[in-house]
Amino acid sequence: MQDETAPSPARASTTPRSTAPASCALAPAATEREAQDFVAAVRREHADATHNCYA
Question: Which residues touch 7 (CB under 8 Å, ≥6 apart)?
Answer without folding.
Answer: 27, 28
